[in-house]
Amino acid sequence: MHVEDRGYQFSDGVYEVCEIHQGRLVDETRHLDRLERSLRELKIRMPMDRKALSHVLREVVRRNRVRHGLVYMQVTRGVSRRDHPFPSPEVQPALVVTAKSIDPAKGVKMAEKGIAVTTAPDNRWERVDIKTVGLLPNVLARQDAQEKGAQEAWLVDADGNVTEGSSTNAWIIKDGALITRHADRGILRGITRTVVVEVLAAEGLRLEERPFSVEEAKKADEAFVTSATKIVMPVVSIDGQAIGGGRPGPLVKRLRGAFRRHSELAAA
Ligand code: PMP
């Protein structure tokens, strides 16, 4: 990374993380759609056309011999002498693609046990729907969670409602209904979240897209988070209070299985 890369100096860039399952990219089209949207919102050009980028992703996965894991891509506004306005004339956006293997047994084990979450104030900017590399509030919230022995932090807005996790979308289940905050500019519209919305419709489950408070979450029957890395991950405690008796519940288990079946179909 160049010292005058604008991603490094200004967090002037965006990223995507895509799951690799059985050597294939899961929901690649949706991830590339979101990458293009993030770039458009920040007026950064695509570093190469979509077909070429798709080819690069596959090559990085193949050359690193990744069967299960993640591919990370980052696009910044490029390298230019440090100055706040966009470089003029425009420079070539900088692309970094990496892939890493993850032992699939790790996620399975974590899902069997479930994770603990803490809560922290959501003090991010107002455009968190853009997947920028500016993640300092998320980093601090997650570190705070870790210091409290938890695996994720749920961010809470000024009204006491949970927006999302530091790197996941947040869900609760009450009386058979799945509740997650509506996707506006206040959360990242997770690809896994979108897929779960489709999966639960196919499973005949009820969805409520609306804000929910920390108090409501603590009284939920089940809770979980979604992301490309965690897929569907049961939450078994919130700020030390047990959810569903402190064990992963039946609906979350069912959804995780249904999601896996979907991603096996969607991996191309
Ligand atoms: N919210 C935030 C803040 C995230 O960083 C992520 C992970 N990139 C998500 C939600 C989940 O998004 P996805 O399902 O696309 O991984």
TrEMBL record:
Its cofactor is pyridoxal 5'-phosphate. InterPro entries: Aminotrans_IV, Aminotransferase-like, BCAT-like_C, BCAT-like_N, Class-IV_PLP-Dep_Aminotrnsfr. SUPFAM superfamilies: D-aminoacid aminotransferase-like PLP-dependent enzymes. One of its GO terms (molecular function) is L-isoleucine-2-oxoglutarate transaminase activity. It is an enzyme of class 2 (transferase). GO terms for biological process: amino acid biosynthetic process; branched-chain amino acid biosynthetic process. It holds the Pfam family Aminotran_4. It catalyses: L-isoleucine + 2-oxoglutarate = (S)-3-methyl-2-oxopentanoate + L-glutamate; L-leucine + 2-oxoglutarate = 4-methyl-2-oxopentanoate + L-glutamate; L-valine + 2-oxoglutarate = 3-methyl-2-oxobutanoate + L-glutamate. Its EC number is 2.6.1.42. Gene3D superfamilies: 3.30.470.10, D-amino Acid Aminotransferase, subunit A, domain 2. One of its GO terms (cellular component) is cytosol. Keywords: Amino-acid biosynthesis, Aminotransferase, Branched-chain amino acid biosynthesis, Pyridoxal phosphate, Transferase. Pathway: Amino-acid biosynthesis; L-valine biosynthesis; L-valine from pyruvate: step 4/4; Amino-acid biosynthesis; L-isoleucine biosynthesis; L-isoleucine from 2-oxobutanoate: step 4/4; Amino-acid biosynthesis; L-leucine biosynthesis; L-leucine from 3-methyl-2-oxobutanoate: step 4/4. PANTHER family: AMINO-ACID AMINOTRANSFERASE, AMINODEOXYCHORISMATE LYASE. Acts on leucine, isoleucine and valine. Belongs to the class-IV pyridoxal-phosphate-dependent aminotransferase family. This is Probable branched-chain-amino-acid aminotransferase.
